[in-house]
Design the sequence.
């Protein structure tokens, strides 16, 4: 098929097996328990095989024989990366590159088989070949999302091309036995899974949520038909497809000149999601609804509501207008560092204790009227309260999109991490949480940051009570109440500090006792808790 860019067949290709029998013998000696070397060996053999001339039917048999081992190795390798902060280390990038390359070479193999079907060879296998090819693309998309990396636009073109080829052969609805997935799955189901998965804001989700969405789509994708006329149900905004575009499903408001080739009918999916939410609220367990033994309330209900909004209603418009900008910004990531910069570059010291001045400090006060800050400046320069250089790309009252170019110095980031950002034209740092993150195709790290309301103030906190008499103060941030926005006063604390009805001594200019009244949110490295004056 002309739309597939396949490597040339060459006499230089020397695979270690050239038919299904020799492939089976080779696999029997492949030490799958030694995952990394086995993956590299399999990748090299696929590269050789894709450039080697084979009878049409034999190539398909070899690919099918390799498939279970490929999926086993890919899953074990991607697990090593799934919870790693970004950007990945050099070793981790190498592992991920091997995973991507192996999916790509497997796809090339099935595309070559599909090319043979166009030439009239083993044409009865079109449904199987297209289903396997679609699964390669969808699996690679999913693995990119598991490590929060963008994938090339060409993935969408490959997905559409394979689906269109199945459609032309009337093979889209034919169930295909899939021993790896342990189910019978059609081309249409794999296609729809990929489309809906990428509409589920995967770069915002946790690893558990990504796995849940993927598992649920295996149940629901068969109920989302692809139609060539608009769905009759007009109560939901249509999801459109353009087979020629390097993009997934879209809505009419975001058409941007695209012409619809097909529509996704989400009416049954909408009813399924609504029914699940209603039953959960009536007390049904997630497991009884087929949502998985690891699904627990209230998280599973919240995820279902989010998916309904994304898939069936269209993402809600932003409450604040986000404008594009191109400016520099400073970023810091630890509570200690934020405390230092927000307090006016003052090193944290235990409050309430008189500190005896050294002779040098007394001399500096006598000469200059204050002590020298050179030691603190040196500590900052050495990285003690280091800030990072980022680019501010978008901003609104509620959030920012920032980017750090590939190769720039700086720390590693995870979802739900506390960050503070100060644009170059701002006087103070804004504090917020990483809402989504991804590494783009250039290697730049991008973060979406949701900003906490109000201007935070640096404070010191410590526990109270009989068992806390010797406890020391630690840095924290105080966020004042904003009645107009119905935002309560809050403290940003290290993780694990919240206890119901706990009283903390909070010191700023003076000490006060504050009662912790509830958890507003928990992040990967902080807790934001509501407070009121202790009585």
Sequence:
């Amino acid at each position: 098929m002309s739309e597939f860019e396949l490597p040339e067949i060459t006499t230089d290709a020397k695979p270690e097996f050239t038919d299904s029998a020799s492939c089976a013998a080779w696999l029997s000696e492949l030490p799958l328990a030694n995952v990394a070397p086995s993956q590299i060996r399999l990748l090299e053999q696929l590269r050789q095989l894709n450039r080697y001339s084979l009878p049409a039917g034999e190539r398909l048999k070899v690919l099918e024989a390799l498939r279970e081992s490929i999926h086993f190795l890919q899953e074990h390798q991607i697990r090593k990366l799934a919870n790693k902060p970004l950007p990945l280390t050099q070793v981790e990038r190498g592992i991920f590159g091997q995973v991507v390359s192996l999916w790509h070479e497997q796809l090339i193999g099935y595309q070559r088989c599909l090319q043979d079907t166009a030439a009239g060879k083993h044409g009865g296998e079109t449904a199987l070949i297209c289903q396997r090819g679609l699964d390669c693309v969808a699996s690679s998309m999913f693995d990119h999302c598991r490590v929060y990396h963008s994938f090339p636009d060409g993935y969408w073109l490959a997905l559409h091309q394979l689906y269109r080829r199945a459609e032309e052969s009337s093979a889209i609805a034919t169930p295909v036995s899939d021993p790896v997935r342990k189910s019978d799955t059609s081309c249409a189901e794999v296609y729809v899974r990929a489309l809906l998965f990428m509409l589920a804001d995967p770069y915002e989700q946790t690893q558990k949520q990504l796995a849940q969405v993927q598992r649920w789509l295996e149940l629901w994708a068969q109920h989302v038909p692809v139609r060539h006329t608009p769905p009759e149900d007009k109560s939901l905004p249509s999801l459109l497809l353009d087979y020629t575009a390097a993009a997934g499903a879209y809505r009419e408001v975001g058409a941007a000149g695209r012409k619809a080739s097909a529509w996704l009918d989400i009416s049954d999916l909408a009813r399924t999601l609504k029914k699940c939410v209603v039953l959960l609220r009536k007390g049904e367990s997630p497991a009884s609804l087929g949502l998985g033994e690891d699904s627990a309330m209230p998280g599973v209900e919240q995820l279902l509501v989010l998916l309904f909004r994304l898939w069936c209603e269209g993402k809600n418009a932003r409450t604040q207008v986000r404008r594009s900008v191109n400016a520099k910004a400073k970023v810091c990531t630890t509570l200690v560092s934020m405390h230092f910069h927000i307090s006016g570059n003052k090193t944290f010291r235990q409050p309430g204790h008189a500190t005896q001045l050294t002779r040098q400090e007394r001399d500096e006060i006598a000469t200059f009227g204050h002590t020298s800050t050179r030691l603190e400046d040196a500590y900052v320069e050495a990285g003690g309260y280091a800030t990072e250089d980022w680019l501010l790309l978008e901003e609104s009252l509620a959030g920012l999109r920032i980017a750090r170019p590939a190769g720039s110095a700086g720390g590693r980031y995870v979802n739900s991490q506390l960050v503070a950002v100060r644009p170059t034209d701002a006087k103070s740092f804004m504090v917020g949480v990483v809402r989504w993150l991804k590494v783009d195709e250039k290697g730049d790290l991008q973060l979406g940051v949701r900003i906490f309301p109000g201007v935070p103030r640096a404070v010191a906190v410590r526990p109270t009570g009989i068992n806390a008499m010797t406890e020391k103060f630690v840095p924290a941030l105080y966020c004042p109440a904003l009645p107009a926005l119905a935002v309560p006063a809050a403290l940003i604390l290290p993780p694990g500090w919240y206890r119901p009805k706990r009283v903390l001594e909070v010191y700023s200019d003076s000490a006060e006792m504050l009662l912790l009244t509830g958890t507003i949110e928990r992040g990967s490295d902080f807790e934001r808790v509501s407070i009121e004056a202790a009585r």
Notes: DSSP finds 13 helices and 17 strands in the chain.
